Predict the 3D structure of the following.
Amino acid sequence: MLFSAAASLVSVAIAFYATASLIVPLRVPAVWKVAGATLLLLGAFKNTLFQMLGGGMFFAPNLPHGVILAGALLYNLLIVALFLSVVKDAVWLLWKASHFLGVCRGAFPAGKASAAVLVLAAVLTLYGTWEAVRIPDVAARDVFLPGLSEGFEGKKIALLVDLHASALNRRPFIQAIVERTNALSPDIVLIPGDFVDGLARDRKDDLEPLSRLRAPLGVWGTSGNHEYYSGYADWAKLLTEWGVALLENRHTVLTSAGGKLVIAGVPDPQGPRFGFAGPDVKEALRGAPAGVPVILMAHRPEDAAKNAEAGVSLQLSGHTHGGMMPVLDKIVERLNGGYVRGWYDVGGQVSGRSALSFKMKLYVSPGTSLWNGFPMRLLDPAEITLLTLHRTR
Ligand SMILES: [Fe+2]
């Protein structure tokens, strides 16, 4: 509630700034200016309005699809307009400075610049919102793992993360992702968290298609932060019934043609806030066979160095949504331990013990869907990740 109120306050400040920068300078009748300012303010109050409409918990995942989409478009327009306003005003300041220095003599075309920025903001908002709500493409990646046995050479892992099933991404959307994933014939499916937004009684039918995922070596998952906001115990029970085996601070040993591979998982750090366990990679790997590569599901990437030191070979994460758009991605990266999307080599030496070094690959997925609170993707498409395992030469 406090977070929602703070977010609304910040949004209102953004709306006033965007109005002053983009709407006021326009050379149009006052009624158009009032309409533009109203749309920006409606975007700023989106979350408050959604709560008044009875949208339920945490950014109202239960409202009708069209209402969520309309609110998302207004809110996304506000955020895109903010970033473009800053650029336009920086140009305006440069223009002023050059005018002061006598380099430039003409007046800044404020009305035309504001109109152009508004049109660009509208186009980017429509494109970015469409990119966020469409069925994701498949992104194929090769992974070379030291110590991988011959039995796992060429095995395929489908990585789905941040599905965020809500009234925005309902059953047909999840069903389409499941069908696209099954068509890849994966050997293993891994889902490291943020399955859903909403309580099991509201969203059960939307997420149920996960029960149709098919993989001979299993469908495995672990919790994300949104499972705890959504009633973790109920979702853990349902996911298990649907064949998604949750690895919360534990591991399993897969075998293929005599070779072994460890799949482990840790819960999201939000767990203890709701009376559940937090991530404990040492507990997750307790009793794991030595010399066998370990793939770890951890919803957030931020503990990568600690996990590398614990002996993980490959960490698979999400949570960042790839940063969602340029500039914002730099902020998201800072908030997540320096990771935002793609591949990272994580490693180093344990201080004071020069003989002991560790090395791990980290893949941060941009996510397979998007949270209904801010469904926006610019230069950051979602993906169904298909990882093919290879032995290092
Ligand atoms: Fe998350």
